[in-house]
Amino acid sequence: MKLQPNPQNLLGATVALWLFAIGSVQAAGTMTRFDQRSGSTLRLEGTSTLHDWQVVSPLIIGHLEVGPGFPTQPGQSVTPGKVEAEGEASIKVHSLYSVKKDGSRYDDKMDSIMRDMLLETNHPNIVFKLKEMVLKEAPKEKDGPYLFESKGDLSLAGVTSAITIPTTVLPLGEKNGYQTLKISGSVPLKMTQFGMKPYGILIKTSDDVTVKFDWVVGHKTAAAAAAK
Fold first, then answer.
1. Among 116, 122, 198, 222, whose CB has the most other CB atoms within 10 angstroms?
2. In what helix (H) or strand (E) does residue 28 lie, and over which residues does it extend?
3. Are 130 and 109 in contact (CB under 8 A)?
4. Is residue 6 domain-resident?
């Protein structure tokens, strides 16, 4: 006996698949985007046979997109583990300038040497593309930072290298109509890792450098968007 398809069953299956597809699209669209805000800084630190050196930039450009499991509010309860996060941060090499230990400007010659080492003419930007974030530890206090391990690709002087950065995320709450995060980190690197040779003959820079950053990003709140 040959069974005939039941139109009602076929209709039900079609509706179920349609609802599933809509749910999948909606789930994929739950990412929240944070864009750069003022207050960011990036710092490169190194040593030489003459003295320590440091250069800074006051502007980190880019964005961060996070899923619902990412802490965006102070004291938010989250589960350790991998979270949905992707983004890109960059600085213009020309925005870097040398400073003394007290924060005052060093000199233009040091700036020129540093920019030449970073091959600014052909590679004017330093870019980090975030690939993965893993929450390692939630704060012990409500206003404390969340400890992450961040992985991505750093492009510097025309060379791209995969790096891992211990990172803290500090939700700052709502500020001037923006939900704000402060993302901080520090990672040791080697100049030769990016194809750069330590500078100098009589006075030589070390191969080791440290990158430190505070990146402030914000997401416009619904109330602020509605008011606009």
1. 198
2. helix 7-28
3. no
4. no
Question: Which tokens is 38 given?
Answer: 């003022």
Residue 9 lies in a domain: no
6, 64, 141, 154, 212 from 192: Cα distances, Å: 69, 29, 40, 14, 19
CA distance 168 to 136: 10
**Cα dihedral: 91, 184, 149, 220 (round 10):** -80
Encoded tokens for 174 = 């709502």
For residue range 12-52, what is the model confidence (pLDDT) as tens digits? 444 344 444 334 333 445 899 999 999 999 999 988 766 78
> Is 97 within 8 Å of 108 (Cβ atoms)?
no
Number of domains in the chain: 1
Question: d(Cα 88, Cα 64) in Å, to the nearest integer?
Answer: 7
Which domain does 109 fall in, by range? 32-227
170 has pLDDT over 80: yes
Q: Which residues in 198-223 are b (16+ Cβ under 10 Å) and which e?
A: beeeeeebeeebebebbbbbbbeeee
∠ CA 182-62-101, nearest 5°, is 60
Q: Give the pLDDT confidence of 45-72 residue by residue, as tens digits.
A: 988 766 788 999 999 999 999 999 899 9
Q: What is the CATH number of the domain that holds 214?
A: 2.40.128.110
